[in-house]
Design brief:
The chain is mostly helical. It has 5 helices and no strands.
Amino acid sequence: MGKLIKNHWARLIVLTAALYQIAAALEGFFWPKVFWDFLTTNLDPAVRPIPILQVINLLLGILAFAWEWPLPLLSFAKTAMHRSIEARLAVYPLASLSALLLYQGTNPGIYYLIGMGVYFWAYSEGEIVCPEPWTLPRRRRINGDKV
């Protein structure tokens, strides 16, 4: 059996969350609703008449999708930002919070939380994100022996 590569698993979870967040933001333009409106109406100006929360969710969803699925045309894949799990653990809580505020974005918010947990698990075990997406780190040869 192989070893579970947690940063690849977290990448798939966050890709799912990002796609759901983009869809929730687009749906929020047509049916604006804050998830917490049963407690207070103070957050209603964030979704109507100016769709601030929807735009924030759309931008963060596109950013997360581009970060997790880097296109070779943008040459983002080999940057330190792409390889940094710490940067992901700093940005994804903001994406999760903005998704959880929007009624249509509760599922992506929960998926982001799960993805952050898996990324933290990978970080605590010392995993690295390879410069080339969806590849494995190279093994070091010990004493010239073949692996």
